[in-house]
TrEMBL record:
Pfam families: Aminotran_4 (PF01063). GO terms for cellular component: cytosol. Its EC number is 4.1.3.38. GO terms for biological process: amino acid biosynthetic process; folic acid biosynthetic process. Coiled coil: none annotated. It is an enzyme of class 4 (lyase). The keyword Transferase applies. Belongs to the class-IV pyridoxal-phosphate-dependent aminotransferase family. It catalyses: 4-amino-4-deoxychorismate = 4-aminobenzoate + pyruvate + H(+). InterPro entries: Aminotrans_IV, Aminotrans_IV_CS, Aminotransferase-like, BCAT-like_C, BCAT-like_N, Class-IV_PLP-Dep_Aminotrnsfr. CDD domains: D-AAT_like (cd01558). This is Aminodeoxychorismate lyase. It comes from Alcanivorax nanhaiticus. Involved in the biosynthesis of p-aminobenzoate (PABA), a precursor of tetrahydrofolate. Converts 4-amino-4-deoxychorismate into 4-aminobenzoate (PABA) and pyruvate.
């Protein structure tokens, strides 16, 4: 396999960065994960708009135009054999001479790293045979700017680990009694045939998959609301889903060891999963 680092493609074991990189010292950087199906980037512009926003929010200079980013992503996909891959893209503020919390002045060149990962076949690809996943609820212990796709993921990592140790695959987070999102996903519930997802704010990452699900529901006249979800509504929901770029839409069939609805992937999930997969195939083939 090949990765990209600061202007060159290379084997992963050839890629070296300084321990004085602010990504290493302060987790001072941002990232994106962009899926490609059949080697075709999916929702590329939406991911790049979010990348540009994350960089601007933490004042890192964007080293590339959108077309340059596209070319780098496509070259990396090609060099890794194409097919279904995710592109991981990270930009840190760069390597400094001394460890200082304040930004280096004058600024240094940002560090750019990219690699690909395999994408497992998502549940949404086969709605009729999907088995669903388990989740637990945990307190959202993260910072107040979860809308920035920061590489500072220690709380997310600790929360996900707690879920895994409880035999679940995701932690659904609660702040002041309301659902925010998952440790690496957005959350949807279905109550009386209406789909509900929390509104975008500084408390959640504006998921590209989340936005597409909302868009698809609206265009197919499936009732969907963006509003806060109190904990008791989460517990009583007929369906719960979590969404992310590499896992698409995953039905949660158990919450805190209690069945969600009848304990199987729900009918509304099946309908929306089909729309999602049709949309993906129209854009990327397969
Ligand atoms: N929320 C968090 C905290 C995430 O880390 C992610 C993605 O990994 C998401 C939501 C889902 O975002 P997207 O659909 O853009 O992958």
């Amino acid at each position: 396999s090949q990765v990209y680092l600061n202007g060159a493609f290379m084997a992963p074991q050839e890629a070296h960065i300084s321990p004085m990189d602010r990504g290493f010292l302060f987790a001072d950087g941002i990232y994106e994960v962009i899926p490609a199906y059949n080697g075709v980037l999916f929702r590329f512009d939406e991911h790049l708009i979010r990348l540009e926003r994350s960089l601007a929010e933490i004042a890192i200079h964007n080293p590339h135009s959108r077309e340059e980013w596209r070319h780098l992503c496509e070259t990396l996909i090609e060099r890794n054999g194409g097919g279904n891959l995710s592109v991981y893209l990270q930009i840190s503020r760069g390597a400094t001479e001394k460890r200082d919390h304040a930004f280096p002045n004058p600024p240094v060149a940002p560090t750019v790293f990219m690699m690909t990962g395999a994408i497992a076949i998502p549940a949404a690809d086969s709605p009729d045979t999907a088995s669903g996943s388990k989740a637990i609820t945990l307190d959202d212990i993260r910072w107040a700017r979860c809308d920035i796709k920061s590489i500072s993921l220690l709380p997310n990592s600790l929360l996900r680990q707690q879920a895994v140790e409880a035999g679940a695959s995701e932690a659904i987070l609660l702040r002041d009694g309301f659902v925010t999102e998952g440790s690496a996903s957005n959350v949807f519930v279905v109550i009386a045939d209406t789909i509900i997802t929390p509104p975008k704010s500084h408390a959640i990452l504006g998921g590209i998959t989340r936005d597409l699900v909302v868009e698809l529901c609206r265009s197919h006249h499936i009732p969907i609301e963006e509003r806060e979800i109190p904990e008791n509504q989460l517990r009583q929901a007929d369906e719960i889903w979590v969404t992310s770029s590499t896992k698409e839409i995953v039905p949660i069939i158990q919450l805190n060891n209690a069945p969600v609805g009848d304990g199987k992937p729900g009918q509304v999930w099946k309908k929306v999963a089909r729309h999602y997969v049709n949309f993906k195939r129209r854009l990327c083939g397969q």
